[in-house]
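Known limitations

Structure tokens in this collection are predictions and should be treated as such. Users comparing against experimental data should check residue numbering before alignment. To illustrate the layout, the record for Bifunctional protein PutA is reproduced below. The input appears on top and the generated tokens appear beneath it.
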Amino acid sequence: INLADREIQNRLIHALGQACQQSWQAAPIVNGDILTGKQQTRLNPANHRDAIGEVLLADLSAVDRAFSIAHSAAPKWANNSASERAALLERAADLFEEKCTELMARIMREGGRTLHDALNEVREAIDFCRYYAVQARRHFEHPIVLPGITGEMNQLRLVGRGVFVCISPWNFPVAIFTGQIVAALAAGNCVIAKPAALTSLCAGYVVSLLHEAGIPKDVLHFLPGRGDEIGMKLVSDARIAGVAFTGSTSTARQINQILAQGERIVPLIAETGGQNCMIVDSSALPEQVVKDAIASAFNSAGQRCSALRVLFLQQEIAPQILTMLSGAMDELCIGNPMNFTTDIGPVISSAACKELRQHCDRMNSEARQIKIASLSQSHAEGSYFAPCVYEIERLDQLKKEVFGPVLHVIRYQADQLDKVVEDINNSGYGLTLGIHSRIDATIDYITRHTHCGNSYVNRNIIGAVVGSQPFGGEGLSGTGPKAGGPHYLQRFATERVVTVNTTAVGGNAALLS
Ligand code: UN1
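Generated tokens:
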């Protein structure tokens, strides 16, 4: 879809307008049965008054039911051929394409994401389906034959582990939710999906499309609810075979602790927060820096774990960059996410606004405010938060990840680059990093010495592309492996080696052929 094309814009507006007329519902689904539960109304974060649908929260008893059905379904699903599972994922991708505007409408109205973000997000979900389908065929369809001594044959097989619990965030309510589930399914696992409470309408629709694509009802279950209730009960269950989690570092820690209790030893695949920095030296191109810093810090209202939080500017170039940055921020269009011209929509909730305000109050007393974008009266009714920039002195003034459109700037002297690198590493996070420089030796030094999962040189630091830029961090930013990368599915599987003595009486040479 080319959004610059007028004709396409008109068709999209029409389709979105129709999709937005509806009131949506999401309910727990176990074995295809739609369950009831406590009802919660979802309001549009762009105005806080538009009731966009109802979510029925899963009862705790649904957890046991989902586990027992998924557990029974697991052996058959794991023994299906990988290409059969891949074909279902490809059918799901086709359905997502067909239902693109319905998905976008939910992402915009429930998640407050802009039209451009919503379209990119649907594309990303489709990419995950197609990419993991290819990876499943490549790594799971045919066992690897390994060398051995004469008279023996060895075969390595990748097999689904059992029941995976997928717990997803609200900031990519369709793409990350879909990506986790389809990876676990492609690797041969059954799935119980727990969406973010704030974006369960998006998630419920995704599950209905996956079922429609042919994912068996006993293989994929859906339990909307609170993390500290349903989420905790799910990860406490003895039948769990693994967890895929994207969200905050503190929740990942909590999940780890719960998993460590009891008899189980199961993997946690966690993608968590970041304290992402961009280092700009005096050889950088100012126009490019400003464009990339703005996109990285403020796109999606800064609500990406990949977003830029701290801009390190070499002293010589700092005044010019800050003047240009401030001017460029005057051009940002903050407003209704449904409009084509909107750059920045609301943040997810008024609670998120409040937390950001608290951070800015602290910054107002201990840092220098460089810029704050202006909001108008029309923003008052939604959870809009004005993008802003503060100059601070040290990275450790930021105690934790600030999940919104707040950018921090730190100046450094030319001879302090190694100290900058050391400080970034000392934050403990290691997700994304930006470098703006035209000096190869500087780029090489930084990329070799920083512990970051994804480094971007002379460009923005968001929007990792499935298959090209596998995404995920290290340290406090996550366990890896990288989503959308060639090693992701393997982590959802267990490896089994079968060795056969082919010279034994009765010879079993055919067994592994
Ligand atoms: C997240 O915000 O949780 O690179 C992940 C990006 C996205 C991933 C963000 N593909 O911005």
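For this record: The pocket of 2-aminohexanedioic acid is lined by residues 169, 171-172, 176, 246, 304-306, 462-464, 471 (CB under 6 Å). The chain has a mean pLDDT of 95. Please report discrepancies through the issue tracker.
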